[in-house]
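Notebook p. 47: complex prediction with zinc ion.
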Amino acid sequence: MSDDTSDTRPEGARPGAPGEAPGGAAPAAAPGAPGSRSAARAALRRVPAWAWAAGGLAVAVLVGMLAAAALRPAPPADPAPLPDPQAAAPALPAPGAGAEAPALPPAAQPGADAPALPYEEPQDPGLERTIRQIDFALLETLLFTGYDPHAMTIRETRLETRGEDRYHFQVVDIELENGPERFVDILARSLAKWAPEAALASGGQGSYTVAVAGVPTHVLEFATPAPAPGPAEPRPARRGGLLAIVIDDMGQDLRYARELAALPFPVTFSVLPGTPHNREVAALAARSGRELLLHLPMEPKGWPGINPGPGALFTFMVPDEMRRVLAADLAEIPGAVGVNNHMGSRFTSDADGMAVVLDELRARGLFFLDSLTAQGSTAVRLAREMGLPVYRRSVFLDNVRDVGAITRQMEKAARSAAATGQAVAIGHPYPETLEALKQWARREGRTETIVHLKELKPLN
Ligand SMILES: [Zn+2]
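Predicted complex, C-alpha cells below:
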C-alpha cells in the first residue's frame, strides 16, 4: 500500500504516534505538513482503523493517489525546521478565494479496483457504497488540510435499514486545531467529487450531518484536542455485544480447518457439498465442539457466467428437485445445525424457491443464516413468517485479502455488535483471514464475546 518498500512490518506493528520520523531519517514532520515527503509517508503508514474499515484496499489506492498528488507540487524536501502546521496546511486555495478549482486528484471509482472474490459473486452496491465514497471524501479532506488520519475516529456505527438497503450509520469525531469551517468547506468540494448525491448540513454546536437522499449517513462531531494529548490511538470498540464469526467455503482444506478449530474462540464452520474434505471437516467440527453449517450453493444473478458449484439450487428447479438436492447436500455435512447460502443473489430473491428451502429446514429443525448476497433477499422475511430461526450477515471480513483490512472489518463487526447487541461476520478460508483471527485472539478482552450463531438471538 505504501511507496516506502523498505518498511515491511505488518500494519498492526507500525507505530502510529504523530510526529514519528519515518525510517529514522529527517526530523519528524508535524502532522500538518502535507507538502513534505516525510509527512506524506507518515500519513501512508498511519491509515487508521476507520479508513480500512471503510474502504480497505480502495482506501490504499486513494491514499496512494493523494500521496502522489501531495508529492508532485512539493518542492524538494527541505531539511530545515518545518513551518507552522497551520501556515503550511493550505495546499488548496483558501475558502472563497476564487473560482479556481481545488487541486484534488481526479475522481476515480473507489472500490472499483478492489479484487472481486474469486469464489463469491459481487455484492450489490446500495447505500453502503455511497457511504464508502463519503468516507473517502472525509479521508481526503483530512489529508489535504494537513491532519494525521488519527484526528478522525469513529465513535459509533449502527446497522440501519432503508427499504431493502442496509447500511452503516456512523458518528465520527474529528479533532482539529481550530474550528471546522475550513475543513467543512473543503469537505463539501470533496463530496461533490466523490459522492455528489451527499448533502452536508450544519447541525449546530460544531456538529455536521451528511445525508444521502434525505437519509443521514454520518454525523460529524468537531472538537479541539485536549491539551498535551498522548499518542493518538484509534479508540477500541466498546465491549459488549455478541459476535459470531462464520467461515464459508470450507471443505477444500483440512489443515486450514484444523487451524481454525485451534483458535481460542469459537468459529462456525460452513462447509460446501461436493468438496474433497467435507466429511472430514464436519467430523473435525464435531470433535472440536465447533458449530457446523451446510454452505448451500444457490443460483447467483451472474449464472451461468458465475457457477455456484456442485449441489446448487436453481430457481428453474421444481420443488421436489430442490428438496432432493438439499437432502443430498445435508447428507454430505452430517451434524450441521443450520444452513447459509453460498452465492444465491438470484435464488434468495426468489420467494417461491426460498419457501421450499426454508420449509425443508424447518422440518429438520435447522436455522438459516442469510449471507445477504442480494439486497432483495427474501430469506429473513419468509423465515419470520414461517417461524424458522433466522440470522443475517452483518459484515464480510475479507472482501479485501489483507490482514490489516480484515482486522479493520473485525473491528467494524465488534462495533456493530456493541451498538446493536449482536453481529454476524462472514469470512473465507484465506491465509490472511486466519492470520487476522490469530492476531485478534492475542488482543486482550476482544475474544470473550465471540460466540456461535446459536447463542445469538434470531431475528424472528
Ligand atoms: Zn460461499
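Notes: Residues 1-61, 66-103, 105-118, 228-238 have pLDDT under 50 and may be disordered. Residues 119-120, 248-249, 295, 342 surround zinc ion (CB under 6 Å).
Next step: compare against the earlier run before touching the bench.
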